Amino acid sequence: MRAIVIAAHGGPEVLEHVERPDPEPGPGEVVVDVAAAGVNYIDTYHRSGAYPLALPAAIGSEGAGAVSAVGPGVRDVAVGDTVAWASVLGSYAEKAVVPADRLVPVPDGVDAELAAATMLQGMTAHYLTHSTHAVREGDHVLVHAGAGGMGQLLIQLAKLRGAKVHATVSTAEKEKLAREAGADEVLRYDDFAEALSGRMDVVYDGVGAATFDGGLKALRPRGLMALYGAASGPVPPVDPQTLNKNGSLFLTRPTLADYIAEREELLQRASDLFGWIREGRLRINVSARYPLAEAARAHEDLTSRRTTGKLLLIP
Ligand SMILES: NC(=O)c1ccc[n+]([C@@H]2O[C@H](COP(=O)([O-])OP(=O)(O)OC[C@H]3O[C@@H](n4cnc5c(N)ncnc54)[C@H](OP(=O)(O)O)[C@@H]3O)[C@@H](O)[C@H]2O)c1
Description:
Layout: E1 2-6, E2 16-19, E3 29-39, H1 41-48, E4 57-58, E5 62-70, E6 82-86, E7 95-99, E8 104-105, H2 112-132, E9 140-143, H3 149-160, E10 164-168, H4 172-181, E11 185-187, H5 192-196, E12 200-205, H6 212-218, E13 219-227, H7 241-245, E14 250-252, H8 263-278, E15 286-291, H9 295-303, E16 310-314
Parallel strand pairs: 9-10, 9-12, 10-11, 12-13, 13-14, 15-16
Antiparallel strand pairs: 1-2, 1-4, 3-5, 3-7, 3-16, 5-6, 6-8
Helix pairs in contact: 2-3, 2-8
């Protein structure tokens, strides 16, 4: 099979497209013929070493496809089933080995490509709007990078819960996408803090260094800063006194793994998302598909702000 691996951390050029022996499933594991693998920011951190991996390493954290082999002790999954997963390394490949307890079934009406595009960012948007801060009717919510993969999903899920959604973007073209996703107000980065000053119940910030201070100013007293990423670079250490000064704020730095650790939670989040897709209430905007061999180009496009919505690799 063909797969993307790295022998050293570095830029997109370290992503190697190589031939590998077909994997065999171990106890509790399943082999899946990958129909599509999602491209995510975390893959670029694994590649660069911002989140170091034991080398050599297989890259890719999300995908979907048809089960081609099951290991000893696996129940509830059979050869031929369409399944999807997130937060499992080695997804940039023609075949992925996935622990059976990390798989979710893909229902009729959702094809494997769409399922791959939904899992990681979709479940992240789900936990951010339902668990980190359970958005209520009438909440004022700020979503940074509103045209991005995460941004378009956060806007839609916050709207489903009845919020008034404000979004930031860098260009007019991205503004159009954020509005199509449902944003009520779309701002640029240079004036959002002043425009929203002290009014937001929650800020969803995946941009990080460039937006963090402005986000604190946009929050109402006792509002919540959900800092879930760092597309513009990491936020420097924060003096707790800053939270006091800006109005007894709450700050969290959540990660998906902690919100899908229990199998019931994993299944519930995925099944909510697939349900909303089937009902036409959630739209997954797959904006670009790349051949597996062009993983490096996908990483370059994602980190240089050229993309919108979801990127997929097709083995
Ligand atoms: N914690 C979690 O559980 C979790 C899970 C999934 C993703 N994430 C995080 O979510 C964030 C978004 O991920 P994504 O895959 O959906 O990416 P994305 O939002 O599609 O792409 C990043 C966007 O960030 C904006 N941005 C602002 N300043 C930037 C800069 N200096 N460099 C690059 N981009 C900049 C750009 O939009 P504009 O041009 O409109 O500014 C860019 O398109 C990432 O930080 C990722 O790590 C976290």
